[in-house]
UniProtKB/TrEMBL annotation:
Protein name stated in the entry: 3-phenylpropionate dioxygenase
Annotated keywords: 2Fe-2S, Dioxygenase, Iron, Iron-sulfur, Metal-binding, Oxidoreductase
GO molecular function: 2 iron, 2 sulfur cluster binding; dioxygenase activity; metal ion binding
Domain named Rieske: residues: 32-137
PANTHER family: 3-KETOSTEROID-9-ALPHA-MONOOXYGENASE, OXYGENASE COMPONENT, IRON-SULFUR DOMAIN CONTAINING PROTEIN
Pfam family, one: VanA_C
Source domain of life: Bacteria
């Protein structure tokens, strides 16, 4: 996690707060983001067009099942490639039949064979991995088109952990959803009728604890009672981890964990990934997965719906009307961190003449 900002070169204006907030509106760059659950893109099936971080992208699988993510724009007339056909090893634009390969090279121009467009890498291709049943894409800036290593937290890497990929689109800025995740106190009130979050003190003192990749914001003197802590991590992607204690009826294993990654769609909409995780193996994992699918999942979506209703329609500029207090120290620190990172990226781009 970066901790030092470089001083702008002589003659270059320091980014203003407005410019920093504008850069953050559609997401912090140079990070991995999940863009869609893996099951939504079929092998050899139709290409899927999406908007993520304000960019139009197309997702498709070749006949071997490999996932490809590219700019959703034909290099000929700039119409969406997602409206074309998946030919198994390439996309064919529906407008004039131009064919584009997985690396963005134009393979064929049927209307004028041999034209200069053929053989050119004319479509941007994004670094892509699949993990925890989701498709992750690297969104770099002009200085970081090559992806950083993808190092998911242990809860998403399999092994001792079982997980479910829970996905929903919300009509809210990605930053306000992260604020909600860094606010453990709202669980005591908003989710008071939840089957897992009805206990705990309605008053609390919070403390912040640094970690190698971020920080923990937690209730002092209360643990394993309610939604008692949140951990923010910046490790190639932006994660918020939390745990909710399970009653014995929830099956074997420890606390129920959630690893959240919020991917901006545009300034006012977000693709939300709430990975439900539990440290269980063998038959215990099978029992937990069965209980989750048959008994617990509807309850968890009910809790998420309460959060969604609070966030619904929350566009940019909400901060102007807030009057924050001690319970909000976690989200304040997160906001400052994101602003610092965005400012550093703007400075670097200006120094390199890329902004």
């Amino acid at each position: 996690m970066s901790t030092v900002l470089e001083r702008p070169a002589a003659g270059l204006a320091t980014p203003t707060d407005k410019e920093v907030q504008g850069a953050l509106a559609t997401g912090l760059r140079n990070r991995w983001y999940p863009v869609l659950p893996s099951r939504f893109v079929e092998t050899g099936g139709r290409p899927v067009g999406l908007t993520r971080l304000g960019e139009k992208i197309v997702l498709w699988r070749d006949v071997q099942g490999a996932i490809h993510v590219q700019t959703d724009r034909c290099p000929h007339r700039a119409v969406p490639l997602s409206r074309g056909m998946n030919e198994g090893d390439r996309l064919r634009c529906a407008y004039h039949g131009v064919e584009v390969g997985p690396d963005g090279t134009v393979l064929s121009v049927p209307g004028q064979p041999g034209c200069p467009l053929e053989g050119r890498k004319a479509v941007k291709t994004f670094p892509t991995v699949e993990c925890a049943d989701a498709i992750w894409v690297w969104f770099g800036d002009a200085l970081h088109e090559e992806a950083a290593p993808f190092n998911p937290p242990e809860q998403l890497a399999g092994g001792e952990w079982g997980s479910f990929c829970c996905y929903a689109d919300w009509n809210a800025s990605w930053r306000y959803i992260y604020d909600n995740l860094m606010d453990p106190m709202h669980g005591t009130f908003l989710h008071a009728n939840s089957h897992t979050m009805y206990q705990g003190d309605t008053q609390a003192t919070f403390v912040t604890r640094d970690t190698p990749k971020g920080f923990v914001f937690e209730k002092a003197g209360q643990r394993d009672v309610n939604f008692d802590w949140s951990e923010f991590l910046d490790d190639g992607a932006l994660y918020v981890r939390l745990e909710i204690p399970y009653p014995k009826t929830g099956g074997p294993g420890g606390n129920f964990g959630i690893v959240s990654v919020i991917t901006p769609i545009d300034e006012t909409n977000s693709a939300c990934f709430f990975f439900r995780v539990r440290k269980v193996q063998g038959w215990q994992r099978d029992v937990w997965r069965f209980l989750y699918r048959t008994k617990l999942e509807p309850r968890h979506w009910h809790v998420l719906e309460q959060d969604r209703e609070m966030m619904d329609g929350c566009g940019l500029g909400l901060e102007r009307h807030e009057m924050l207090y001690q319970h909000d120290a976690g989200l304040i620190r997160l906001r400052r961190y994101l602003a610092k990172e965005a400012r550093g990226q703007l400075v670097a781009l200006r120094e390199a003449g890329k902004a």
